[in-house]
Amino acid sequence: LLLAALGAQAAAGDFDPYRVLGVGRSSSQADIKKAYKRLAREWHPDKNKDPGAEDKFIQISKAYEILSNEEKRANFDRYGDAGESQGYSQHQHRQFHHFHEGFYFDESFFHFPFNSERRDTSDEKYLLHFSHYVNEIVPDSFKKPYLIKITSDWCFSCIHIEPVWKEVAQELEALGVGIGVVHAGYERRLAHHLGAHSTPSLLGLINGKITFFHNAVIRENLRQFVENLLPGNLVEKITDKNYIRFLSNWKKENKPHVLLFDHMPVVPLLYKLTAFAYRDYLSFGYVYVGLRGTEELSSQYNINVYTPTMMIFKEHIDRPADVVQARDMKKQLIDDFLSQNKFLMVARLTSQRLFQELCPVKKSHRQRKHCVVLLTGEGDKFAKAYEAFLTFAVANTKDTLKFVHIYNDRQPEFADALLMDEEKYQGKSAVVILERRNSAGKIAYKTLEEAWQGSKEDNFILLDLLDQLRTDPGLLSSETVLADLNDELAPMFLIRWLYSMLDYILDCWDSLFHSNWREMMPLLSLLFSALFILFGTVIVQAFSDSSDARDSPPSEKEENDAKTEKNDASFSKESNSRIPKKGFVEVTELTDINYNSNLVRLRPGHMNVVLILSNSTKTILLQKFALEVYTFTGSSSLHFSFLSLDKHREWLEYLLEFAQDAAPIPNQYDKHFLERDYTGYVLALNGHKKYFCLFKPHRSADEGGTLGSCEDYDSSLHTEARGKSSCSPGSRSIKNKLHKLSFWMERLLEGSLQRFYIPSWPALD
């Protein structure tokens, strides 16, 4: 067994993604993607009937997964493996780990023929891939729920539930439930995306939302699980007391209403699935004919209580628009019946989506479809015109004509574009025949000369125009561009927000009792972080209030000193539009503790201006640095820090190697290498884009005639209350290093300084 395992390990190590895709090691991502698409189309198991097509397709997918990821590709080029670990010991550990998993659980590692040949073929037609799931299954879950099984090879529990799974999958698929199978060994990315950390796992998908199954795997539990995925308000129970109200809602909801008469006490799952699939077009009700209180309903519509009957009601609730009866209602029969009755006879245009479905764009001369639109208003005043238009539409049902109506006050832009605000249509109804020319809103149309009153003369005129339109498409002589319709039935923002909050709370509640700890860790982390911040803020605020209460009010002398300091610095404020928000400069030390937050993870657009100093020059340089950058503290994107040269010389010299022209680094074997003085250097570090700008201190010989006396720049920051400042020759030469730093800061904000890019920020040891 050990020799066989080692031989399989060597065979697995020979996998070359470049050879599988037929590309070179220097190929670009575009070439790799092009080769993958070509091979995937050629070897896809649904198109290629070769016995080895499935294994070949898996190899192609694995090769593209490695080469499309720059990090995995670099690891493969370096170590011959796409793993993320580096180094000999870690690489060996990873090989052993893969060997252990492959030997016991992963068929793809060994390709044992006795297992691959006997693999159950009933699940092959349900196998899902990541791209197929994202691009097709998730959008389709808004029309029907999906039941998905996560399985793998050498999974004995998967074998145990296989008989139940086969039976339930066949039964639910016939009812309209989508079935999917994910092989965790081949589709690890999809299994991780679904949140399945063990096999077997069963989950439901509806409206893009995933719900895990946690009960015993038996037929009744699985059926109930799928039924619980569906919303609870899809089908309304109808009796003699509420059927008139239910059918009369067609005008408010702008939908036909469907009634199913059956002798089952509960609503069949097939009917619930159908109601979910057509919920945007139809409203559904269920009548239990064996229940007391449904006799009047059954007798009025002459229902056979022994045969399931489905009726569709449109504008007239006293008689159904269409009926179908069958002892065994099949999904195909119901779909054919409902797809032909999705809209009212004269539907109201309430949204742009409905307008596009009822009045599609002309694709060819043989597929011309015209819409006859009644532009009317609400209320009894317009009822007669609407009834006459409805009668005309019922008598002239043709595939090439769609009759619709619209309320002028709810869609004013649509009405104004067609009627041009003509006075003869004010307060009256009008009829327009239109044809959509493209999806951008361009239409050709013709408006009836006179307002629509519903008289016989109006009917003859409209009928004559429609007859002429068959032979003369040029009858629609006017053209215009329509804006998108308002969605009249869309819920208010507050209601949508409440529904979203309710869904989120239910998800959290379900996760709290059913999800494992790995899935709960992000939520728990967020909860404890919020509690820590809340209580921490309260405690800090309590201590801050108590300390402020103990502080005595400032004396008159301190107030006068503060006013004098503000007056001394007023020249900087007036000469610069960046008004400082504080009366001081906040400069923090850059250490290994705050290194990530102050540099590596600095927000985009922010920069950290760092002063290099030593222990002996710390006080003098910080005073001069504060004076030079004070006028720039009003910018919220600038942060100011200092770095100790005594502690972090190696870090600084590593950065300066990328700026050789601006600050040449001496040879490391030079005896003066460790004596080089970098105090006074200033670096502007952009942590997000990984570059820095460099300020070199000026030599004292060049500064003598321009710097002036020490008191000239000490007076603006030091007052008499702070004591007497030092003006020795040594301190003057140190301060002179930061001369003209303010001009350099101006150029930094202008973006005219040279930038030195680095591959990554080194660690600050």
From TrEMBL:
Organism of derivation: Thalassarche chlororhynchos
Any one GO BP annotation for this protein: autophagy
Bias type Basic and acidic residues, positions: 547-568
Domain J: 16-80
Chain segments carrying region Disordered: 546-576
Compartmental location: Endoplasmic reticulum membrane
Domain Thioredoxin: 105-231
PROSITE patterns, per database record: DNAJ_1, DNAJ_2, THIOREDOXIN_2
Gene: Dnajc16
Annotated protein name in UniProt: DnaJ homolog subfamily C member 16
One GO term describing the cellular component: endoplasmic reticulum membrane
UniProt KW keywords: Autophagy, Endoplasmic reticulum, Glycoprotein, Membrane, Signal, Transmembrane, Transmembrane helix
Function description: Plays an important role in regulating the size of autophagosomes during the formation process.
Recorded superkingdom: Eukaryota
Stored Pfam families: DnaJ, Thioredoxin
Membrane topology according to the record: Single-pass type IV membrane protein
CDD domains the UniProt entry points to: DnaJ (cd06257), TRX_DnaJ (cd02963)
